[in-house]
Design a protein that fits this description.
heterotetramer; A alpha/beta; B alpha/beta; C mainly alpha; D mainly alpha; B: alpha/beta; Rossmann fold; four-stranded antiparallel beta sheet; globular; C: mainly alpha; MetI-like fold
């Protein structure tokens, strides 16, 4: 049976700089925001992709949702190709894959009322014949919003309310896969809990699979079955969420996990400090691209790029000298 | 014992709005001793930014301080005339804001801006330039000599924030206000910036008022913390009692909600139901009453006074107080 | 009609009424509206208010304003008051019509350039810039050389002069909204380019452009009057403020009345529309308001 | 910066090519035989045919296009129908008078407009701000040629303080003749510059880096003139670039109203005498002048804005 989603060494390339800059100053003509990523998702599963800004996680999400063209590799949803589709096929796909965007208020069309926003999916796919008001009320109920909110406009909603409207719109046509780009970004801590509870509840009730894109590690524990850590357009580690939290094998994973201080003064974090900053995609380091910042760097790391290899327990790591469980 | 770097007592600030006066800050008391790092924690809409603007006396035109005293190392700030206040800023008291991308002037080199803010010092330019480059080294800016004459857009977000910190600490102020300095940064960068702030504070010895809505960062960096809700300081004291044995129900819920604190996977993360109170038509009793799981009779009658307890400097809650 | 549409109508009407009240509450807005009203009524009721604008009476030429000739007479003895009123018709019809046309063409071209493929964007940008490079008068001269002077020449000049700037504005705003998250959200729902442009981009960009267009009306009135002044616009004997001013200029040594009669309505109308445009912008875009906000 | 300059100059060149194409279309392809139009309705068919061949109208279209571009690029804009003199020399002869007028008006409107704009921005909401706002809006609204006619009526004809005709000989006399026309042209621009600069300053003052400068206690004067104006001036310069083009238009009126020599008068008379080579030549020269001025303005702005001068391709 085909997996729900299959991505095979996907590459998304963006043109950059100018032709003149290229010929005279030898500036590169393009950058690979996603440089060879593979993953699979089974129905009902929730996968999280974690990474800092510039890691390419949002580009990956947009490529899977069929919103941007793909240069190499393939994306297949239930066996059928996703990337570079014709208009009609892509439209049908958008009923199956829905996306929730980062800015809760900014992802809602400013001139529309909440009612108009929630009716939009039905109008786009020619289902306006249904009783739209009933659908709107049903969706508002699903995400825990009072019917009275239907007449309000996006700028009259709080961050939490706007996020719920975004979720309601995404699940309007009962998609099989929901991609959430930074679902808790811009929300206060107390509201973040509400959003995570909502996503978990909908996952059970509607049997959704979810792809969560975030840089906030602490929310992953509560929502993602499996997770992958992305750096400069590639996965450096992937596996069971609880396992990775218990024992990260890639130095970058350890750095990310330990960079999330708990609100307890006595929780002495065993933190590894990273040197410098994320290198620019225009000047990708040689060998393992993380070697410039890695505290455990050795000679081999500078020449040879490590492949993403599976360990005995199925954990994927891209490091010549993965951290032993005892080490952390 | 020298005067505290910052002493605020019973400070109230109101905004004139079409719907009537908005009570943004009510009876706020905060103290930052010399050489201490004090945290200010609260969610959006709790009055953190209004407080900072009040301290800097850079409030919006429709805002005014209606009550209270504010002193910077013993100097009264409220009574000061604008010109004297301007002289204080950037000399005895400096600030770093949240968004590094827009904090620096885009058309002036960082060197030019770092020399400009030393305008009070009667020194040759070369000396000011040396001090600026020295400061850039201390905030780990690689190769500061050549990057001195570069423009802000030629630096990454993380570096720009370190440059802003260097500018603020160059004058070795008495009080350094950090207004959510790491919120816009990635986690690994945030942690590195916190480590940098701790090191610089030990070297320079200035007091820091650190504002953030990231509880973990405050717990690691600060000696004492003030928790704010809807314009009031509801609980303040040393970091350990506040974070490990919080008394005020809001602080308890806030800590419970933080996903980083909940270790085992759960589908029902704690939340704080309800919305923020309307600060124009204030509720008669405690502002948190409608959302408080432990609300009881006195809470609706009158706002609880700030009371000192064994471990806390101030607790604005009737719980555990002798029945008044 | 789903419930949404019915509830939207009263809300929109309410918003318009309150906006009108705010516009009139401003001194500039009030003054502007009055001047514009004066011009519109004058043009509208020209027939009733004044005698025949074309009737010539050479012996009565260069008369000063009097009861029977409110603004005096010109070099051919024609009643200036009548000519000014009838001239108002041409000015308003041409300027409002031409502005509407240039708005329509400009915004459409801008939307296509902003949302279309890059090569189309560059091509259209090139055309916008080329059209805008013609100084307005030179444009008028070139067009009139071949098409002959007429009101249509004026309309064409206004369109070629103004449409490119509206197009550029529409293009820039469309480009910025194209990557806005709510547009990408609509695309992720499966919305086609047509729907996105019509119901998501257009409503968000049309506001500021309308305000700029309302502030351009005085410029358009000036173009009509200017071209008529140069004999490139309205053909005599049809009265236009420009031709009245030109006849006044020609005989300026003999009598000032035609110059005054020709210049006054242009000043009144352009000031009226400008003040009205200012007040409109203050109510809809308070950020740039002049008063103490 | 180099790439920006190259791209921008390329665009300017492309615009010129398109302008010439549009002009070619206007002259040769719009209905009505140019030769017949040039000679007027009473000319004989033989005369028209002879002119047609001289103008190369009988050749295939693309040959005409190539001839047109080659002749224009080599400065041959055809000859004056009456005097037979080269159009280019006639135009360049008259150009200095118009340039006096344009740069004279622009000069004083900048001198008055910029300080006015800064003042009303720094004292936002004060009486100065409101009076400046109303006055500048009014002078923008009223067309320059109406102002010109009224200035002529009042100061030249009525009070006779200034000459009503001509451009004057020695420099002092030329300046004396420039007063009224440059006021007529420049008045609207004072208002426009003041308003543009004011809006731009207010916008920049709202930005975070100004709040940072204030938090460091920098004196208000330094903040406005060094930190804010340096950014706020950029959009105003763009407007000045475009403004030169509009000034060309109003210059035509000023030259007619004040009977001054210049390309405006030249082209106006050419219309009356159906001297079309002069008309097309002037339109072409003024448009090229406009494109050039805008190119210089954009390059100057790019040089002043380090974000473009030192653009880093991240």
């Amino acid at each position: 049976m085909n997996p729900l989603l299959a991505v095979e060494n996907l590459v998304v390339r963006f043109p950059v700089g100018s032709a003149i800059g290229h010929y005279f100053k030898g500036e590169p003509r393009s950058i690979d925001a996603v440089a060879g990523v593979s993953l699979t998702m089974e129905p009902g599963e929730t996968l999280a992709v974690v990474g800092e800004s510039g890691s390419g996680k949002t580009t990956l999400a947009r490529a899977i949702a069929g919103l941007i063209p793909v240069q190499e590799g393939a994306v297949r949803f239930e066996g059928r190709p996703v990337a570079n589709l014709g208009a009609a096929a892509r439209k049908a796909l958008h009923r199956q894959i829905a996306m929730i965007f980062q800015d809760p208020v900014g992802s809602l069309s400013p001139r529309f009322s909440v009612r108009g926003l929630l009716a939009e999916p039905f109008r786009i796919h020619g289902l306006a014949a249904r009783d739209l008001d009933a659908e709107v009320t049903r969706l508002l109920g699903l995400v825990g919003l009072p019917p009275a909110i239907a007449e309000r406009h996006p700028h009259q909603l709080s961050g939490g309310q706007a996020r719920r409207v975004g979720v309601a719109r995404a699940i309007a046509l009962s998609p099989k896969l929901v991609i959430a780009d930074e679902p808790t970004a811009g929300l206060d801590v107390s509201v973040q809990g509400e959003v995570l509870n909502l996503l978990n509840e909908l996952r059970e009730r509607l049997g959704l699979s979810m792809l969560i894109i975030t840089h906030n590690l602490s929310i992953l524990r509560h929502i993602a079955d499996r997770m992958a850590i992305m750096y400069l357009g590639r996965f450096v580690e992937a596996g069971e969420t609880t396992a990775i939290f218990a024992g990260p094998r890639h130095p970058y994973s350890l750095a990310l996990l330990s960079a999330n201080p708990e609100p307890d003064p006595d929780a002495r974090p065993r933190r590894i400090a990273l040197e410098g900053e994320v290198p620019s995609l225009l000047a990708r380091p040689a060998g393992c691209e993380f070697h410039g910042r890695c505290p455990f760097v050795q000679a081999r790391c500078r020449q040879e790029a490590p492949a993403l290899t599976a360990g005995p327990d199925g954990r994927l790591v891209a490091c010549h000298f993965p951290l032993e469980p005892a080490a952390n | 014992m020298s005067a505290p770097a910052l002493a605020i007592e019973h400070l109230s600030v109101e905004y004139a709005t079409a719907a009537g006066p908005l009570h943004a800050l009510r009876d706020v008391g905060i103290e930052v001793a010399a050489g201490e790092i004090v945290g200010l924690v609260g969610e959006s809409g709790c009055g953190k930014s209004t407080l900072i603007q009040a301290i800097l006396r850079l409030l919006a035109p429709n805002a005014k301080i209606t009550a209270g005293r504010m002193a910077l190392a013993g100097v009264d700030l409220i009574g000061l005339d604008p010109e004297a206040m301007r002289k204080l800023r950037g000399d005895r008291m400096s600030v770093v804001f949240q968004d590094p991308m827009t904090a620096l002037n885009p058309v002036l080199t960082i060197g030019r801006q770092m020399v400009d803010i030393q305008y009070r010092r009667r020194e040759p330019r070369a000396q000011k330039r040396r001090r600026a480059i020295e400061m850039l080294k201390r905030v780990h800016i690689p190769d500061p000599e050549s990057r001195f004459d570069q423009y802000p857009h030629e630096f990454s977000g993380g570096m720009r924030q370190r440059i802003a910190i260097a500018m603020a600490l160059m004058a070795e102020p008495v009080l350094f206000i950090a207004d959510e300095p790491t919120t816009a940064l990635d986690a690994t960068l945030e942690v590195a910036t916190i480590e940098l702030l701790k090191a610089l504070q030990r070297e320079i010895g200035c007091a820091i008022l650190f504002v953030s809505h990231h509880l973990g960062v405050v717990a690691e960096l600060c000696d004492r913390v003030n928790v704010m809700y809807a314009g009031e300081v509801v609980e303040s004291g040393p970091v350990r009692p506040v974070f490990q044995r919080p008394q005020h129900p809001y602080t308890q819920r806030l800590l419970a909600c933080d996903p980083a604190r909940v270790h085992e996977r759960t589908r029902h993360l704690p939340t704080i139901p309800g919305d923020l109170p309307d600060l124009v038509a204030l509720p008669p009793g405690c502002v948190f009453a409608d959302r408080c799981p432990k609300v009881f009779e006195p809470c609706r009658r009158a706002p609880p006074p700030a009371v000192k307890t064994a471990e806390l400097e101030a607790l604005r809650c009737y719980l555990g107080q002798p029945a008044s | 009609m789903s419930a949404a549409a019915s509830t939207a109508k009263p809300a929109a009407a309410r918003r318009a009424k309150s906006a009108l009240r705010r516009v009139l509450s401003e001194p500039l807005g009030l003054l502007g509206s009055l001047l514009v009203l004066l011009a519109v009524l004058g043009a509208g009721f020209a027939g009733f208010l004044a005698p025949d604008p074309i009737a010539m009476a050479p012996i009565d030429r260069f008369l000063a304003p009097s009861m029977d000739h409110l603004l005096g007479t010109d070099n051919l003895g024609r009643d200036l008051f009548a000519r000014v009123l009838y001239g108002g018709r041409i000015a308003l019809v041409v300027s409002l019509g031409a502005t509407a046309a240039s708005l329509l063409l400009g915004v459409a071209a801008g939307l296509v350039a902003g949302y279309g493929p890059p090569w189309l964007d560059n091509l259209l940008l090139l055309i916008f810039d080329a059209l805008k490079s013609f100084p307005t008068v030179m444009l008028a001269l070139a067009l009139v050389t071949l098409l002959g002077p007429s009101e249509w020449a004026v309309v064409l000049v206004v369109i070629v002069a103004n449409a490119p700037s509206y197009a550029r504005m529409a293009r820039t705003q469309t480009m910025s909204l194209r990557h806005a998250q709510f547009v990408e959200a609509e695309r992720s729902l499966g919305a086609g380019a047509g729907r996105i442009i019509a119901s998501h981009i257009l409503p968000n960009i049309v506001g500021p452009i309308l305000i700029v267009a309302s502030m351009d009306i005085p410029v358009v009135i000036a173009i009509e009057a200017g071209m008529s002044f140069l004999g490139l616009g309205v053909r005599p004997p049809t009265p236009s403020w420009g031709t009245i001013l030109e006849s006044g200029f020609e005989y300026i040594q003999d009598s000032p009345w035609a110059v005054i009669a020709g210049g006054l309505p242009i000043i009144i109308t352009t000031l009226g529309f400008t003040f009205l445009g200012e007040a409109l912008r203050d109510t809809f875009d308070p950020k740039l308001a002049t008063g103490p906000r | 910066m180099l790439t920006y300059a190259a791209k921008r100059s390329g665009l300017a060149l492309a615009v010129v090519m398109v302008v010439m194409a549009l002009l070619f279309v206007m002259i040769y392809l719009i209905p009505g035989d140019p030769a017949r139009v040039a000679l007027g309705p009473r000319a004989s068919q033989a005369l028209i045919d002879e002119l047609r061949s001289r103008m190369g109208l009988d050749k295939p279209v693309w040959v005409q296009i190539v001839d047109f571009y080659r002749s224009v690029l080599t400065g041959n804009l055809g000859n004056d129908v009456l005097s037979g003199e080269s159009v280019l020399t006639i135009i360049t002869g008259q150009m200095p008078y118009t340039l006096d007028l344009i740069f004279g008006s622009m000069f004083w409107s900048i001198l008055v407009g910029i300080p006015l704009g800064c003042l009303s921005a720094m004292r936002r909401g004060s009486l100065v701000d409101q009076v400046t706002a109303v006055l500048s809006v009014s002078v923008i609204a009223v067309p320059a040629f109406v102002i010109a006619v009224y200035l002529l009526l009042i100061f030249a004809i009525g009070l006779q303080w200034f000459p009503a005709i001509g451009a004057g000989d020695d420099p002092l006399d030329r300046a004396y003749h420039l007063v009224l026309p440059s006021i007529a042209l420049g008045l609207g621009w004072v208002g426009y510059i003041a308003r543009m600069l004011r809006a731009s300053i207010l916008e920049v003052q709202g930005e975070n880096h100004v709040r940072t400068a204030r938090a460091f206690g920098l004196p208000e004067g330094k903040i406005v003139f060094d930190y804010v104006l340096r950014i706020a001036i950029l959009p105003t310069l763009t407007v000045l670039g475009i403004g030169i083009g509009q000034l060309l238009s109003s210059a035509v009126f000023a030259e007619i109203v004040f009977a001054r020599p210049g390309i405006g008068k030249l082209v106006y008379d050419a219309i009356v005498t159906r001297n079309y080579p002069i008309v097309t030549g002037t339109v072409l020269v003024t448009t090229l002048f406009f494109v050039l001025v805008n190119l210089v303005a954009d390059l100057m702005i790019a040089w002043l804005d380090p974000r473009v001068r030192r653009s880093l391709h991240r």
